[in-house]
Amino acid sequence: MSSNLATKVFVARLLGLDVFDPLGDRLGRLRDVVVINRGTTKPAQVVGLLVEVPGKRRVFVPVTRVQAIESGQIICSGLVNLRRFQQRGAERLAVGELFDQRVTFKDGSGPGIIEDIGLDQQRNGDWHVSAYYVRRGGRDTGFRPFRRLARGERIVVDWHEILHVDDSEPQAATQFVAAHDELKPADFAEALHEMPDKRRLEVAAELQDDRLAVVLQELPEEEQVQILSALDMERAADVLEEMDPDDAADLLNELTDEQQEALLQLMEPDDADDVRRLLEYEEDTAGSLMTPVPVILPPEATVAEALAYVRQEELSPATASAVYVCRPPLETPTGRYLGVVHLQALLRTPPPESLGSIIDTDLEPLNDMSPVEEVARALATYNLTSAPVVNTQGRLVGSVTVDDVLDHLLPDDWRTHDDDPKAV
Q1: Which of 114, 296, 398, 402 would disulfide-bridge 292, Cβ 3.0–4.6 Å?
Q2: Is 182's pLDDT higher than 90?
Q3: Pairing of strands 396-401, 386-390
Q4: According to the model, what pLDDT value does residue 21 have?
């Protein structure tokens, strides 16, 4: 169906490529292509690239600055404004919005799904969307007088051979999720944050529960609420179970009491109990910040056992930095809190040694009602990444980590705050 394929550059093959200036200095990495739809009589025009520069900021590079798209790299010229990219008017993101869009062939041969987009540079230097790589599929109710294409077949078609469906129709996000699978949760959240509301919800719905949970934790609160509210109640409860209890409690605090209780009732009882305990604390106290499930072991446990616990992949580095030693029961609130064993002490001690012989008893635990300022001061004074939190009976109820404190001390909009625009 298409012609002149040898001159085409496909977007999916460009993603992740390094972007350099003419002197060879690396600007960042390509994350998307920005295009403008010009109606049914003209191909969409490429207006720029979305480049992730150091600091995880995504900035706009006009296509007029692109000197060359070569094997393994993209070379640009001139100054690049480092202001965070903000989508305007008719601008569309190729990967973020056009990939996975449902289309219909003009010849009546049925619907399909866009999996990639082909770009061509014109003689005047402009770049146009010249072709689409389409997978056969989707709801098909129309008459097909021409060649029948097998469901699942993939073909390249010229831009004028397809009709885009109405943007109001639900759009899958399979291709976007697959293309960004390697991104860390914070970086994936950044990409979600920059999307229009509709597309953000479509991509979030495509993620597995555990992936969505860690990505949600990196988003501004209003977007967390937006995404959670768009899920059915059963799935929303499943996602909350996958989140760290303190982050789940923070999110539930943004909902009404009725919504909170409905979701807690749908969660597994043990997970719900952890979150309920955190919801009882006043905001900006150690109890409201802490995780109720740190690493807890009895004094008879060995160093080898402790190291096995802190090696668990699901533990954050801050949580894995300390083992809290308590009398049974070992679930929070525990029996009497005895002290802490830091990760460095574990690494320096023979594996058969018991934890009771290397406990640090000099570190005073925080009270669960201590204000966040006192928590921050304690972490800074003793150069800690985590600290124990006890109740008035001296029982361990959780641990507070430095990342928990930073989240509460930084401005509410720190994830989306822009510095003064600069250029490189």
Answers
A1: 398
A2: no
A3: antiparallel
A4: 84
Q: Encode pLDDT of 80-110 as tens digits.
A: 788 888 888 889 999 888 988 888 888 888 8
Concatenating the DSSP letter of every residue in 271-321 gives HHHHHHHHHTSPTTBHHHHSBS---EE-TTSBHHHHHHHHT-TTS-TTGGG
For the chain, how far is it from start to end, CA to CA, in angstroms?
Answer: 43
Render 195-252 in DSSP notation, one character per residue. Answer: S-HHHHHHHHHHS-HHHHHHHHTTS-HHHHHHHHHHS-HHHHHHHHHHS-HHHHHHHH
Question: Looking at the domain assignment, is residue 291 inside a domain?
Answer: no
Do the domain assignments include residue 286? no
Instruction: Return the closest-CA partner of residue 174 out of 17, 12, 46.
Output: 12
92: CATH: 2.30.30.240
- Whether the per-residue pLDDT at 346 is higher than 90: the answer is yes
Question: Beta strands 154-158 and 162-164: pairing type?
Answer: unpaired
In angstroms, the CA 219 to CA 227 distance is 10
Last residue of a domain, one of 103, 137, 164: 164
SS3 396: strand
157 lies in some domain: yes
Q: What is the CA radius of gyration of the chain?
A: 26
Looking up residue 236, the CATH number of its domain turns out to be: 1.25.60.10
Given pLDDT bands bounded at 50, 70 and 90, which one contains residue 151? Answer: low
Give how many domains the chain has, as a whole number.
3
Domain span at residue 377 reads 296-409
C-alpha to C-alpha distance for 246 and 284, rounded to whole angstroms: 12
The number of residues in the chain equals: 424
